[in-house]
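Forwarding the complex inputs:
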Amino acid sequence: MKKYPKSFLCMCGLILVLLLTALAAPFLAPNDPYQTELMYALKGSSAQFPLGTDSLGRCMLSRILYGARTSIFSSLCIIAVVFFLGTGVGVVSGYAGGIADQILTKFITIMQAFPKFILAIAIAGVLGIGIENTIFALCLVEWAEYARMARSLTMGVRQKTYIRAAKVCGESSIKIMARHVFPNIIPPLVVNASLGISAMIMEVAALSYLGVGVESPMAEWGAMMNTGKDYMQTNISLVLIPGAAIFVSAVLFNLFGDKLRDVLDPSPGRQR
Amino acid sequence: MNHWKTTVKRIASSLAQTVVVLVGITLITFLILHISPGNPAEIWLTGGDANVGQISEKAIHEQEVKMGLDKPFLVQYGNWLLRVCQGDLGASMSTSQPVWESLAESIGPTMSLTITSLLLTILISVPLGIYCAVYKDQWLDNIVRCFSFLGISLPSFFISLILLWIFCLKFHVFQVIATRDWRGMVLPAAVLVIQSSSKLTRQIRAVVLEQLGQEYVKGAAARGVDERTILFSHVLKNCLVPILTWCSIYFGIMLGGSSVIETIFSWDGVGKMAVEAVGRLDYYMIQGFVLWIAVIFLAVNLTVDILSAVIDPRIKGAEK
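Prediction (whole assembly, two chains):
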């Protein structure tokens, strides 16, 4: 078995803890995150509400824990979709070449020239507010970057001897792309995707912050900050706590991505 | 002679591509707006205010005819495109101000914010990035890496809210609603600089490190070339193209306006304008904004191509 550096395993462990915390939110949360109790509104931390309550008297800790599910799993979902969609388009485009490549490249350029954020807002506005529409909107704008990267990586390997050998042996193009091109270009793409997770967490939160992300009572970090900012003058913790949650998960995923790069792709020039 | 021919050919093909991209982008935007459930005619009549009461079907229909919304989708898009070719971007559906006028009004503040932030970012990132690469793993490098890591892990709205809280609510250094002079620009520019310099420093450090590891550096050092000469006249020369590319990309991104930052600090730039236009389903305003972004994107791409060809002769030679 290949030996991985300790710091990488350590990061894997921390990410696992984060994911498990998000998954186990119903068991860890001390209160119902949707239970409003105006009597307890805007209270500081207490035995019943360890992180205090928000403007509607909902338990902050419980909302943060449930929000972790929304934020982290929607980001993972987006990254998974754009990774496979983008890589697929990129590999086909780069391997096929010719007119197909030209058309796909044009399309990728068009999607990249879009103001991502505005398009996501517009789509959320068109399809209505809700986390699944946010995910859809971000998928639609994010895949192009992966496609471009996969395309140029494919161009780099398509003239390699092993590809030509496979061609000579009569393997079909689909098989070559799936069995030979894809496995050989995957490490930098995976690194890019793992570094993209934290960006997605922040973008989902930013859309929710602008009010086009999740629907109103749903626990989500960006939305919590949006409601919290009205009480900034008196109670900054309503903004600080969800902000810290976003920050911590973004740091963890960024560190994880860095370590993953060291493991998969050790050349120093690949840093973003 | 031959050289000029290929140059003209390249410019012509890149112009043709530009047109394709512009048409594609505006067509997709138009399509998204077209399938959205809101009716611009109704929004026009109510002025975006839901409390006006019911407006008769007939009035809505008349307005639709007036705005050309009763026509098929492609005809509508064609009409819009024709008018754009004549230099008419249409009028805002909610204020009836010409789109190019509102665009010009919001581009000014975004432009000044962009130039300030980009200059500061370059002034911070370029020396720091180079320093950290040369003195890798020393104390300043570790500190800078730490900070840039924090910078890329903080969402812009979180930084904005924190700065707003500290400087506007706690210490009253600035007003909550940004004024249009330099005082109002300090906080939004600070957020932009924190974010982009965190990224740019990392990128510059990485590319300088990559160059420092190349064989030619070892060769020059073995020949006894002064370290300073190696760094400034060999290594940095090779780093110039990627650094300029990134700077132009940041320039493009910033010129597109940051919706979140501009909204939080009430800075009347294009990003804030776009968010408001989307909220009111203001077709022509949104189209105008998208056109602006596309033009920037293409201009940045073109600039990068030209600059890299000018600076790095290998790139010119690599193309057919």
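Chain A touches chain B at residues 106-107, 109-110, 112-115, 117-119, 121-123, 125-126, 128, 198, 202, 205-206, 209-210, 222, 225, 229, 232-233, 236, 239-240, 243, 246-247, 250-251, 254-255, 267-272 (CB under 8 Å).
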